Amino acid sequence: EGHALTFAAGLAANGMKPFTAIYSTFLQRGYDSILHDIALQSLPVKIMIDRAGLAVGDGATHHGIFDVSFLSHIPGVEILSPATYSALRDAIDYAYSSNAPVAVRYPNTKESERVSKEFYPSGRFGNIGIRANYAQDDIPEYIYITYGTLASRVLQATDIVKACVGKRVGVVLLEMLKPYDTVSTDLIPYIKGARRIVFAEEGIKYGGAAMLLRDALEQGGFD
Fold first, then answer.
1. Residue 167 in contact with residue 213, Cβ under 8 Å?
2. Which residue in 54, 101, 119, 189 has its CB near the most CB atoms, within 10 A?
3. Burial class (CB within 10 angstroms; exposed 0-12, middle 13-18, buried 19+) of 115
4. Taking a C-beta distance cutoff of 8 angstroms, is the pair 112, 152 a contact?
5. First to last CA, the chain
């Protein structure tokens, strides 16, 4: 893993935009290479992170629950988390067009038909950012924020909440996690005025996307 990343850095230093595919659970073996050989030189290496989140059928050693946390504090690395096949293609297009290091997370499961229907009703949009299953001018009282394959489970959770409390519940799907300051700014129109906001993710709490996004929102003045 370390060799693959440093080799990719060498290719990038010579004008290429290499893509390197590594399982999330093994990406930490290349942490030093990402930090010193790629990020600190702002080289456009594209890190494709397989088995992101809970790795179905692969066992505990293969759960990808650490990559968001350790990539989040490496300067200059963008993190994308597409939730469908079309979004993954868009993420790859975005990564290739970027001159910065970009990490693209994807699971080892099939896409959810419901996720595709609720967040991509018109099919492929051609841009990566924030999706919601409600309009910005009709914000529900309760909102879940999530990313990646967990979106399917979160949508199921909203059905339960609606049935139990009889309130409108919406879901925000993040396709981009980092840079957090940019994402938090773009997120505010989707959550402003909500009564309660819950963040759901398949990753460790400390240093994870939820903690860092909340910090970015607070620093930006969101109350």
1. no
2. 101
3. buried
4. yes
5. 42
Give the dihedral sign, CA 126/130/134/137: negative
With beta carbons less than 8 A apart as the criterion, state whether 178 and 128 touch.
Answer: no
SS3 210: helix
pLDDT in tens, 180-208: 999 999 999 999 999 999 999 999 999 99
Who's near 52: CB < 8 A, 6+ residues apart? 24, 64, 67, 81, 105, 106, 107, 148, 149
The pLDDT-based confidence of 125 (bands split at 50, 70, 90) is: low
Give the three-class secondary structure for 202. coil
Whether pTM exceeds 0.70: yes
- Please count the other Cβ atoms lying within 10 Å of the Cβ belonging to residue 156: 11
The answer, yes or no, to whether residue 82 has pLDDT greater than 90, is yes
C-alpha–C-alpha distance, residues 39 and 45, integer Å:
9
Q: Angle at which helices 209-219 and 180-191 pack, to 10 degrees?
A: 80
